[in-house]
Write a structure and sequence with these properties.
5-stranded mixed β-sheet; two-stranded antiparallel ribbon; 11 strands; binds zinc ion; alpha+beta; 339 residues
Length: 339
């Protein structure tokens, strides 16, 4: 019997009214839990993303995406408990996508599935934000229905091969796609999900192994290379608190070390943290100069020339109006509010 280790990254958004934020399905390292947000977070869009790692003795036993398998096609298996509904899967070929399969969907989602033009628009948006040369590890694109619980995820197509990733976006999370605006949630979502692929691909991580056998940070997919983005990041802001970090209570880590994180969601785990920081790194106009670990995390990404070049390219892709000072103010103010 072999052990199957899978990772599943979710992006979850809550558009809050006045009751604060709640994350109903944050799952980290083997356990599901609740991740309640401070009530002071009201009135803002907030990105809530969860890392799922499933260990199973029988392949497919706990997998969240059983409906990717050909034999699992009954309607009841098309909807999982996380509110994720796979709609259409595409193969990625450069800037183009080709239909791979339409999933069986509930009748209420048929219109989403039939709207292939919208699928194209969403993929086109990704290609406009992230340059082609930086997308080599994205091999599949999946449109799903997030039901305002899950807005995006990435996962290796085969957990034993970190060179090819599936990139998923919720069709009901996409809003105005005509311009790339850094104050727009969906833009931040694309950057965040892309950052997972950028930091967890085979150039960064040696697949497999175990936490015990990994001298560097073990991501779940494998052992990070010594000079990898996520290992450098871990050494800077996680190594000294990692033993004390409870994956079921990330808010506890955030409350103890608020100066270490750009958002409270970033305290979920190092993988979500670096994805959040990448979003800040790209969208903030200036390199931070502060001494907090949160600032140092952003500064760390400036040490990699290829990331600085990527940042410039992405910023060049954005609508100039989306780069106006203060356009990222909502995201920034979250941090102040949640202290
Ligand atoms: Zn994430």
């Amino acid at each position: 019997m072999t052990s199957t280790l899978r990772s599943f990254y979710l992006a979850i958004i809550r558009k809050t009214e006045s009751k604060g934020l709640q994350l109903p399905a944050a799952v980290s390292f083997f356990f599901r839990t609740k991740y309640n947000q401070p009530s002071a977070m009201k009135q803002y869009l907030f990105i809530l993303l969860a890392l799922f790692v499933f260990a199973s003795c029988e392949k497919g036993e706990f997998l969240p995406d059983d409906n990717f398998t050909e034999e699992a096609s009954s309607p009841s298996e098309e909807t999982d408990t996380d509110g994720e509904n796979s709609i259409t899967l595409y193969t990625v070929d450069g800037n183009d996508i080709r239909l791979l399969r339409d999933y069986n969907v509930p009748s209420g989602l048929k219109a989403y599935q039939d709207d292939k033009g919208r699928h194209d628009e969403i993929w086109d948006f990704v290609t406009r934000v992230i340059p082609l040369e930086a997308r080599g590890n994205i091999a599949e694109f999946i449109i799903f229905y997030g039901n305002q619980e899950t807005d995006g995820f990435v996962e290796p197509i085969n957990p034993d091969d970190l060179s090819r990733w599936r990139f998923g976006l919720a069709i009901d999370a996409a809003e105005d796609l005509t311009r790339i605006d850094f104050s727009n949630y969906f833009t931040h979502l694309v950057l965040h999900e892309y950052a997972h692929v950028m930091t967890l691909n085979n150039g960064q991580i040696n697949v497999g192994g175990s936490e015990e056998s990994c001298p560097q940070f073990f991501t779940g997919e494998g052992c990070s290379k010594p000079g990898s983005y996520i290992n450098r990041f871990y050494e800077l802001g996680w190594a000294d608190i990692y033993e004390d970090h409870n994956f079921n209570q990330p808010e506890r880590t955030y409350d103890r070390y608020p100066d270490r994180f750009v958002s409270d969601y970033a305290a979920t785990n190092p993988g979500e943290d670096i994805a959040e920081v990448f979003g800040y790194f790209v969208t903030q106009g200036q390199r931070p100069t502060g001494e907090s670990i949160a600032d140092k995390k952003i500064q760390l990404l400036y040490e990699f020339p290829e990331l600085v070049a990527l940042r410039e390219t992405i910023r060049g892709n954005a609508d100039p109006n989306g780069l106006q000072p203060g356009s990222f103010g909502k995201m920034k103010s979250l941090r102040a509010l949640s202290r």
